[in-house]
Amino acid sequence: MARVYVGNLPEIVRERDLSDMFERFGRLLSVQIKFPTRPPPFAFLTYEDERDASDAVRSMNNVVISGSRIRVEMSRGTYEPRRRGTQYRVTISGLPDTMSWQDLKDFLRKGGDVIHTDVDRRGHGSASFATSDEMHRAIRKLNDFELNGDRIRIREDVPRNRSRSLSRSPRRRHHSRSRSISLSPRRNRIHRRRLSPSRSR
């Protein structure tokens, strides 16, 4: 994996905008935008392949987006996955190899407001929700789904100290039925102001 820093972004930028612009260079594992107290915003993009990250840096550095000349460079230091989002987290297994972080986010939104998602090449992922109720609703609705031929497993990501206390009390068994859905092309997207990258001469 390789991480790319994108600086001097316009304030109207969103994760989907960056994903649309940078996914053409290779598979993105995550996109994270930061909105500091003092603008401009900046972002970190994580690519599965370091060569794709290098292509993105060469092609997108100094591109002008909505009047802002962005700065794109390889992120300094080694990439270390961090726990991001909220405390209401789940782990997911059995994901299709082609599933991106955005696909996973769209899938989990059937259960509630998803704050952050991550995926890796081994069919595993993680996500965090805005509230505990939404997290548990997603587990009830989406666990054991068959997605594009793969059985999805969703479990609450319980901290170690909490898992010890929970293990002392008996658990109720829940029998879930197998359900099947397929990802379809997104339609009726919310129209937002489009960002059109252009190079200045």
Automatic annotation (TrEMBL):
GO terms for molecular function: mRNA binding. InterPro entries: Nucleotide-bd_a/b_plait_sf (IPR012677), RBD_domain_sf (IPR035979), RRM_dom (IPR000504), RRT5_SRSF_SR (IPR050374). The keyword Transmembrane does not apply. Keywords: mRNA processing, Nucleus, Repeat, RNA-binding. Residues 2-77, 88-159 form the RRM domain. It comes from the Eukaryota. One of its GO terms (biological process) is mRNA processing. It holds the Pfam family RRM_1. This is Splicing factor. Residues 156-201 are annotated as: Disordered. GO terms for cellular component: cytoplasm; nucleus. SUPFAM superfamilies: RNA-binding domain, RBD. Its main location: nucleus. It is found in: Nucleus. Residues 161-178, 186-201 have a biased composition (Basic residues).
